[in-house]
From TrEMBL:
It is a single-pass membrane protein. Its EC number is 2.4.1.132, 2.4.1.257. One of its GO terms (cellular component) is endoplasmic reticulum membrane. The lineage of its organism: Eukaryota, Metazoa, Ecdysozoa, Arthropoda, Hexapoda. Residues 206-379 form the Glycosyl transferase family domain. It holds the Pfam family Glycos_transf_1. This is Alpha-1,3/1,6-mannosyltransferase ALG2. Mannosylates Man(2)GlcNAc(2)-dolichol diphosphate and Man(1)GlcNAc(2)-dolichol diphosphate to form Man(3)GlcNAc(2)-dolichol diphosphate. It comes from Cephus cinctus (Wheat stem sawfly). Residues 13-189 form the Glycosyltransferase subfamily 4-like N-terminal domain. One of its GO terms (molecular function) is GDP-Man:Man(2)GlcNAc(2)-PP-Dol alpha-1,6-mannosyltransferase activity. Pathway: Protein modification; protein glycosylation. It is found in: Endoplasmic reticulum membrane. PANTHER family: ALPHA-1,3/1,6-MANNOSYLTRANSFERASE ALG2, ALPHA-1,3_1,6-MANNOSYLTRANSFERASE ALG2.
Length: 407
């Protein structure tokens, strides 16, 4: 049996984490022996499959600092991942393949004693760093160089979308690698088997039975532009009647880690914005919902709002499509590949008014939401199914193993 270890820096709740967990589940279904190695795993802030024993998780190096006096987060992440990669050398049964993502600097270490290393590129990390002064520029130049060089040492590189594939090519100009596009999927078995709880239980709050529910699912980070959803709710007053508007509520659900200063700050910023726009009574904040609660609010909502610009791909629109919900998303990045404008949802420019205008279409025509939802489900099954994801990943892993045997 081929052993595959997934090496991930922080096995919490997020799109990247959902992707690697689903990849592990897909390979497990194909008969692989899969496990996770991570530098942090909070049992109160993780996906169920990593908590209930479905996939074994080993935590190493959590004692290493995550930052130095509030700085050098990237450098500390590099050190933690190199430590974790080194730990694999001392395992009783070393894996045949290590699947890593987010931090590539561990790849040269792994290549010393692991037959195959696979790297999944969600997005080049160097593009996510904020500009700074002279010393930070030098610091980032070194880290950026390491990211590019070490990424090129993987035996196989995946990208999560054609958009990310193009960004990879434009960013890593030294590399002659063309990543294979492996679209993420979702664990549809979990969606199908999950017992949907009432909206009142999921939110711990009762809403009128005829409510029109807008849902946003994203981590509490500024780059996700969650404020757009609140602004759209406020602008919506101009496009619907008072009686229609009275029934509308917005649920902001997403990952929230109290250790992360930005999560705490942005949550408070959003509360303040809702108050400024006089929509406090129509906005419900749901922080780090359980998997069951997330599926439940998704099943109960009428429309999903996806606000991040230039998102690398976006798992949440796929979840909504599978749940037969129309999606209104920013017209950029990965959603332009998953959503068909005017068929499964709408792609709009980044303003609250643009989102509000499209939301009004669904409020005034309930059948339109049903029509778009069914089209989205069909598109998901055709292009983004968990079976297709697992088959493609399995073919690539088999090709790596068979190529070694032939050589």
């Amino acid at each position: 049996m081929v052993r595959v270890t997934f090496l991930h820096p922080d096995l919490g709740i997020g799109g990247a984490e959902r992707l690697v967990v689903d990849a592990a589940l897909a390979l497990k279904k194909k008969g692989y022996d899969v496990s996770f190695l991570t530098t942090h795993h909070d049992l109160n802030h993780c996906f169920a499959e990593t908590k209930d024993g479905t996939i074994p998780v080993t935590v190493v190096g959590d004692w290493l600092p995550r930052n130095v006096f509030g700085k050098f987060f990237a450098l500390c992440a590099y050190i933690r991942m190199v430590y974790a990669a080194s730990y694999i050398y001392f395992m009783n049964q070393r894996p045949d393949i290590v699947f890593c993502d987010l931090v590539s600097v561990c790849i040269p270490v792994l290549r010393l004693y692991i037959p195959h290393v696979v790297y999944y590129c969600h997005h080049p990390d160097l593009l996510l760093s904020h500009p700074g002064g002279h010393w930070k520029s030098l610091y980032r130049a070194l880290l950026n160089y390491l990211e590019e060089v070490t990424t090129g040492q993987a035996d196989k590189v995946f990208a999560n979308s054609k958009y990310t594939q193009s960004v990879f090519k434009e960013t890593f100009k030294r590399l002659r690698i063309k990543p294979e596009v492996l679209y993420p999927s979702i664990n549809t078995d979990f969606f199908d088997k999950t017992r949907v709880v009432s909206l009142e239980r999921a939110l711990d709050k009762k809403l009128p039975e005829d409510s029109f529910i807008l849902l946003s699912i994203n981590r509490y980070e500024r780059k996700k532009h969650l404020a757009l959803a609140i602004e759209a709710l406020a602008h919506l007053k101009k496009y619907v009647t008072d009686s229609e508007y009275k029934k509308v509520y917005l649920i902001l659900a997403g990952g929230y880690d109290k250790r992360v200063e930005e999560n705490v700050e942005h949550y408070l910023e959003l509360i303040e914005l809702a108050d400024e726009l006089h929509v406090t009574d129509k906005v419900i904040f749901l922080r780090s919902p359980s998997d069951i609660d997330k599926v439940s609010v998704l099943r109960h909502c009428n429309v999903l709002i996806y606000t991040p610009p230039n998102e690398h791909f976006g798992i949440v629109p796929l979840e909504a499509m599978y749940a037969e919900k129309p999606v209104i998303a920013h017209n950029s990045g990965g959603p332009t590949e998953s959503i068909v404008n005017g068929v499964t949802g709408y792609l709009v420019e980044g303003s609250g008014e643009a989102f509000a205008e499209k939301i009004a279409h669904f409020i005034k025509n309930k059948n339109l939401a049903i029509q778009f939802g069914k089209a989205g489900k069909n598109r998901f099954l055709e292009l983004f199914s968990f079976a297709a994801f697992g088959d493609q990943l399995n073919r690539s892993i088999e090709a790596l193993v068979n190529n070694q045997k032939e050589n």
